[in-house]
Amino acid sequence: MIPPLHEDLDFNAPLSSAHADRLLDRLAPLTTVVDLGCGWGELLLRAAARGATVHGVDQDAEAIAHARAQAASRGLSATFEVGDAAQWTGTADVLIASGSTHIWPGTAAALTATHRLLKPGARLLIGEGFWRQEPTEAQLAAMPMQRDEYTSLAALVDLAHTTGYRLLHLSEATQDEWDDFQCRHALGWERWLHANPHHPEAPTIRTRADAHRHGWLHGWRGVLGMAYLVLQRQDD
Which regions span the lipid bilayer (predicted)? Predict the structure, then answer.
């Protein structure tokens, strides 16, 4: 059995612990925090450790089970539910949608949907990809992304402002964060292949690992960025 991602990653995103702590600082005060598409909820658990009331939603039952186990092992009060995050209908003082805008049909739809869920003046952390530079045709051919799937960083911030937000903080994943994320993302595959070189599933897993490495090194490395925007809801 191939280990799940959470055995080798802290966050399912190019994000270091120091960077995560800085984002939580910028989101303060942390009162009621909801993470839509939370995965195994590491960022949410760190908010809970700061005294926030937290709730996470994700369709991945295994990830949610891990999040609940982590909360229990750390003695943290946190609730998690298995469900469609796009259908969540509550309200929050702080909302997180990091690496999960695919839940809605595009970034603009995600910003509109989350705006409705925030209390007046509340804050949103959105983690979203952007093109650090325009990809070549060869780079696009190597990666599973499409050219129109992302835009520039400036256009992303402009979109947030036209959707009813003001930018409070902007940061992006460093190259070290990206490289560490990609290596740790593939570590379970490599560890399994080393231990099971003649397993009937080994060719399939090797092909998957090779495709991931090729897409990263020949496609999106240095081309695709990850922006973390702390936004405040504006009201008429």
Answer: none
